[in-house]
Design brief:
Spore Coat Polysaccharide Biosynthesis Protein SpsA, Chain A, GalU_uridylyltTrfase_bac/arc, 306 residues, 13 strands, nine-stranded mixed sheet, UTP--glucose-1-phosphate uridylyltransferase, two-stranded antiparallel sheet, 2 domains, alpha/beta
Length: 306
């Protein structure tokens, strides 16, 4: 079994839900406290042992490249001031992984973005991490998914349980018990086998309440399937449709398993969830949490009128 060592991060979206902030700034560069969202995602991949990262970008995404490049002038200024703490923070983003870039061109969907990584993947299994959400480092998900791939081959999809009224916002999985049972040697995870996938179904047509989140570990066979997948929902090439094909044809690229995740996950895909993420992480920060919690408690109790 070939080791999973590559990560693909689609980052070509326009970020329209955050306009006007994203008019000239990629949404992936919006800060969550003092780091851009995309850095949390890359750190998650690196912590799971994925040291080679491809970002699939579009126009106006140059700040992503700048962030993960060296900043010689800034580093020299910090070094001259003796500010070692900030110097280390600045250098961290350029030293954490081998980061590559390819442009998606036409915005034809997530499946199309993944297909742009075909030559980079070069026949190896790989992970896909969507930049709109990330997993708390204290509750890792990717290592469990990589372990499932190592045991069973095929592809692995991250899943969460959602209320029935929210399932229309996600890809949804039809599942059956995994042959070896649900146990995995990782907290906050359990294993099932996926038999079918539906992209954003109405609640009445949803096969379960298990929603696909933006974490995948994929067999390279998905690239050949994507190349033959016609546009689906929204006129876009859907990764969900390609995985559905694989789930129904395990001889093509192995089975498709799901890892059901119950740990801490943060969503930054829309303004209200972005604000929740900032608050959740801020109250847990050793350097900021105490003061911020005290202020927040006073504000809610005394200053905020419902």
């Amino acid at each position: 079994m070939v080791e999973v060592r590559k990560a693909v991060i689609p980052s070509a979206g326009l970020g329209t839900r955050f306009l006007p902030a994203t008019k000239a700034t990629p949404k992936e560069m919006l800060p969550v406290i003092d780091k851009p969202t995309i850095q949390y995602v890359v750190e998650e991949a690196v912590t799971a042992g994925l040291t080679d990262v491809l970002m699939v970008t579009g126009r106006n995404k140059r700040p992503l490249e700048d962030h993960f490049d060296r900043a010689a002038e800034l580093e020299e200024a910090l070094a001259a001031k003796g500010d070692e703490a900030r110097l280390e923070q600045v250098r961290a983003s350029s030293n954490m992984a081998n980061v590559h870039y390819v442009r998606q061109g036409d915005p034809k969907g997530l499946g199309h973005a993944v297909l742009k990584a075909a030559s980079y993947v070069n026949g190896e299994p790989f992970a896909v991490l969507l930049g709109d959400d990330f997993i708390d480092e204290r509750d890792p998900l990717l290592p469990a998914m990589i372990e499932v791939r190592r045991r069973y081959g095929g592809s692995v999809v991250g899943l969460i349980e959602v209320p029935e009224e929210h399932i229309h916002m996600y890809g949804c999985a039809a599942v059956k018990p995994a042959p070896d049972g649900p146990a995995l040697p990782f907290d906050h995870t359990s294993l099932i086998q996926i038999t079918d996938l539906v992209e954003k179904p109405a609640a009445a047509q949803a096969p379960s309440n298990l929603a696909v989140i933006g974490r995948y570990v994929l067999d390279p066979a998905v690239m050949d399937v994507l190349a033959e997948t016609p546009p689906g929902r929204g006129g876009e090439i859907q990764l969900t449709d390609a995985l559905r094909t694989l789930a129904g044809n395990p001889d093509v690229g192995g089975p498709v398993h799901g890892v059901v995740f119950t740990g801490r996950r943060y969503d930054t895909g829309n303004p209200i969830d972005y604000l929740k993420t900032v608050v959740q992480l801020a109250v847990d920060r050793p350097d900021l949490g105490k003061e911020f919690r005290e202020w927040l408690s006073d504000y809610v109790r005394e200053g905020f009128q419902i």
